[in-house]
Amino acid sequence: MSAEDGNVKRQDAMWPEFEKAEKLARGAALKWASGIFYHPNQLERLGQYRKRETQRTSSVQSRLKSAVQSYLEGVGTGLGQLRTSLDDVRAVRRTLVEVREDWQNKVNGFEGLGQLYSLASDHVQLATAVHNLQQVFSVPEVVTEIRQLIEARKLLEAHTKLMEMECWRDNILYQLYRAGRQDTEGEQIVLSYFSDVGQLNEDLAKELWDVVSCGLTLVKQDPSLFVSAIRIIEREEKIDQMTGDGQRQHVFLPPGRPKYLRQTFFKVIEQSTAAQFRARQTDTKGPGLANHLAALQNNILNDLKVVKHLMVQCCPPQYNILQTYVLLHHSCLSGHLQDIISWDLEKSEIYTVLNWIRHIYHSSPEMIAHPDLCPDVDIASPGPLISQDALEQLQNKYVNAIRVAVSDWMQKALEAEVNDWYREEEPESDHEGYLHSSLPVIVTQMLEENVQVAMVIGDCLRDQMVAMALQELESFLYRFREAVISYGKDRQKDSQPKYYLLYLLAAVNNCIAFRKSIQWLQKQCGHGSHGDCCSKLPHSIDTAVDRAMKKGCRLLIDEMLSELQPHILQLLSGSWICGSDLIDTICTIMDTYCSHFTRIREPVFQFMLFEGLRLVIIEYVHTLMLKKIVCKNAAERERLSDRMSRDAERLKELFCNLGLEEPGRLTNVISSVSELIKLKDTSLLSLEVSCLVANYPDISDEHVSVLLDIRGDVSKDIRGTVLEMLEQNSQPPPEDYQPIFSDILVPAPVLPFCLPAVKCG
For residues 745 and 732, what is the distance between their CA atoms, to the nearest angstrom? Predict the structure, then answer.
């Protein structure tokens, strides 16, 4: 093994990256050579490539040698600097050892300086005492003088003397502090000698806060005393500020500083204001609540006037004393009202509180919005007297109290109304002849008054009151309907009400009056801007009033039908076909009842006429199908058809005279049935039935089958064709269609045979 190979192996062992780099270089060179000499004709340029690569290798080697040489030179320079630093460190170490030896040799010389320091401290204390000797001897005399000044309420002079004493004490303490030694014993002696200063400060502060707490009274009687208190507070604030500035320069702080008298001033007037409110809380139950709130209103306004016209001139502008008193009164009043609304208040008391909060406090010219206060008082800054949640709870409490009273009042009014139905007197009628009672007026007036009273408070309470009124009115209408039903049942008993029909007419007119009241209430809610409250209005109240009104109308029509029933049952008899005056009798009875119906207001009167005629038509056709007569020949069919046509014309004429709009829409039912019976050509029955179905889509195959039976000449094939056509052309009636045939019951067909009944074992 050659020396070169040995060197290479040692290098590989020392630098494992070297072997990897060499392999990569050899691989790259092999790849390059294989690409260059891929074609044989390129071998001719081998010499040129060899020469170029040799030159490039030499250039790289020279750059490497230059870089290594530069690196080695830098390492040599660094080693030289490290040797120099080591020599410097050794020199510093020797110097420190020499200094330490010198210091240890001179320690004994410093022990004598301790006695000199003690003598200097004592000298400072004695010099301070001598310098302040005259002031020290005069302390008891000044203390006595200050006490006399405080008792005489000469606060400014007392405070001046007290400031002098504090200045003496603080100067002595400061000189002791500057002596440079923490002489706790000396400080305690000074503080003990000036101990009366603390007591005098307390006595002066007591008198000072008594003056401040009675400030509203003093500024009217003797403002100089209140001004003196303010001047003392401002003096102390300046001293506190100067003391704070001095403390930032050195650590000495006189005892009792800072005093923060300005902060205490605002606390004292806050406590005095709260005490005045507690003193003014007299009997606030029942009727006394309104008087109590009025007294509060008067007292608060008077206090704020005194503050604006007198106290503002006694206080510095930065105190903003007027707005401060406004906020204090607002805070105390808010707490007092919170206590009031937590009591079990009556509805009148709740209304008084709501009205006072919403309208009197903020907007009344006798309160915060007084002309004397408005330019200088920010009305919006105090905020609401009570929170929005508390206000909503109070409004809900008021609405619930009104709800209980309204419900009880409505029930009593309904009971009185029901008792009137059994009187031996006719109901009242207005100047137009329409029957009515006082029930709608009583109920409506009560609801409208409560809504109008709620309007004074605000839109939200008004909308709540409207919603409550509609809910209670809906419940009342359901009870009213039950009373009408019970009244109708009593008609069937032996004890018949004498004026049954007239009171039913009055009940229907009352429902019309209730509908107008409902519309008024809904309109009142629509005037407001509170869409959420209006969206909660019960829409079912329209259904309730319709059901109550239609129940009364139905009982009236049932009364008419009960009298018509015996005559209607005589239809299709031989005398009727031969031309008896049966239809005239029916028309006479209907005319009599309809003359009563004229005492019902529109549009219910039209409804009564329409519904009465519709039910008579239904009974007429039902009787025709019930008797199931069978015509034997064309002559009988023609007589039957003609008779029915004349009856239809007679009914149409009657209801035209009564004022019903387009009665032919109903009487055409009888005419259409008569045409079907009269038709001579049976092959046209399908066409006739299709026309009948087009006009009356609720007609069923049972109805048509019975009508075909009445004809008596329809074969099975034609019947099957007609019924099949009817089944194919059946379609649901339109939404505005008034049903006729669906209310006509078809009797069940008689079976040709039946099994004998067998008893169960």
Answer: 19
The pair of structure tokens assigned to 130 is 């001598």
DSSP track, 710-752: HHS---HHHHHHHHHHHHHT--PPPTT---SGGGSPPPPPPPS
The sign of the CA dihedral 177, 180, 182, 186 is: negative
**How many alpha carbons lie under 13 Å from residue 316 in its C-beta half-sphere?**
13
Q: Report pLDDT digits (tens) over 278-307.
A: 766 655 665 678 888 888 888 888 888 888
How far apart are alpha carbons 2 and 6 in whole angstroms? Answer: 6
Provide the token pair at 145: 């003088």
C-beta atoms surrounding 84 within 10 Å: 8
Q: Which residue in this structure is represented by tokens 């072997």?
A: 19
pTM value > 0.70: no
Q: Determine the 3-state secondary structure of 435 from DSSP.
A: strand
Buried b (16+ CB within 10 A) or exposed e, 319-334: bebbebbbbbbbbbbb
The pLDDT value given to residue 572: 72
| Residue 378, φ and ψ in degrees, nearest 5 | -80, 105
Mean pLDDT over residues 78-98, rounded?
88
Residues whose CB is less than 8 angstroms from the CB of residue 729 and which lie 6 or more positions away in sequence, other chains included: 690, 693
Q: Give CA–CA dist 300/367, Å, rounded.
A: 8
Nearest to 162 by CA among 154, 275, 278: 154
Contact residues for 605 (Cβ-Cβ < 8 A; gap 6+): 597, 598, 659
